[in-house]
Specification:
3 helices, 6 strands, about 15% strand, 4-stranded antiparallel β-sheet, about 25% helix, alpha+beta
Amino acid sequence: MFRRNRADREFREAQRAGQAVLAMHTELPLPDCPGPHAAPAPAAPESTEVPDFLPADFRAPSRQDASGFMMRWDLPLVIDGEVHQCHCGAYRNWIVFNMRDDSVWLRCEAGHEAKESRLDTAWYNRNSGPVDHFHPTLDEGLRHLGH
């Protein structure tokens, strides 16, 4: 019982101290605000409107602007507890594509491509790093990734 009374009393004292600090600041004139009898400030000259966003040349493409994203996957790709293998026998050094329609495609070193329905965009986003390059063609992107 006494502990709760003491806590309530300490809380009320802290509230009073906070209110006193707030009251002290409301009584002082603010440094940036002119006093009531100060001369009005001269009107600022008209300035041109500046847009809030970057010009198109400086903006990164959005997800809808790109046909898809790609990343290297050098380790064996384990999906649902088993190592994924291409029909040519390759099981590592994949290129993983995440397309605009949220499908995920795999490409082996030999150039075989297959849609992987067990992977989705959420998996791709969890496992990929930040986008570091944008390429105008698929061939340039594959060359950049070493395929």
